[in-house]
Structure prediction request, 380 residues.
Amino acid sequence: MKEKGRKRLAGLLLCLGLLSSAALADPLPAHDLVLRTPAEDSGTTCSHDFCFWQMTEGELDEDIVWQVLMQPLTVLNGNQRDQIRVRARPEKDCQDYVGVVTCASQGVHVLSSEGDWTLIEAYSSAEEGSKVRVWATRFQGYVETKLLKEVPVDDEYGIVIDKLKQRLYVYRSGHLFSTLLCSTGFPREDTPFHETPAGEFAVVSWVGGFWSDGGLYCDYGLRINKGIAMHEVPCTFETDQATGQEIRDYHRCERYLGEKASHGCIRIQRDPTPEGVNAKWLWNHLSRKPVTKVIIWDEIGRVLGEPDEDYPLYYNPAGGKYYHSSPECLAVLKKYRPLRAFTWGELEDEAFSGLQPCPACAPEPDREGIDRANEKNTRQ
Prediction:
């Protein structure tokens, strides 16, 4: 994006209260060119000061993100493996179902209450084989008011997952703490139920390791939505020819981190970020009680724009093949750190054109990566 265009966008975000004045002075990372909120076309508004449904997807202001992360969740009371079919009308005998909500973990947006019934909105969590064939799209409908329950959330950590950028952001005590590569669901025409629903969720169960389709083993599973978990990028088990020992091979799935690839779960990198964060770290640090909130931004109607030309990146001049988000990336040997700085705008210069994004520190995508993210966004 040209400097004039960057300032115009940043100024607009500032006027709308979507960007702090401090952020205006800093180079912008890859950011949305279309400003959308989850419920902007729902025909409803709410009175909440800080609400997921009214916030801008891809929000850059960490104060706003943190305020939303700290709001309690409204869930449907029940077992974390149970789901409720939501009715089109506030009637007990209504069998016109408009969506599915998972109990205990999936947050719903309360729009209005009418005695025994409450109008809500959410993203449908219908699974394969569901009679309610509404896959990961936003809907409005009625549930019994007695099912609603407010759940407090942890005040130290919160998680944001962006389906457009395929990044997982860890917030800690009000600030963005670490950024990781992830892979959310990759639906095809015959598997629309593989789409990862957006919305608000709670980490409700440390399910641990489990086997997935195709002989893939997924470790450090944290359930957020019935069969959907955040977990380490899957591996297969191979036999080391030299030692005869069984070893884990991550190549099959690790190469797709940073783009859609899963059956609905959120695959997370195993290499530690410069802050030491990976899937195992999340397993060890997220709160069990009160629950850690997870926000998932949808990609519907969004377009990813380029970072500012002067956005900082780093590289190893002693023959490194990657560019990095931090001068202290742990994927680089200590003797080569701190890494040397350059800018995003120089990525296509001859000196840097051969560098690839580091798989450990989740740097901003290059132009090819941004184009690929927009091309793969089939939910325009």
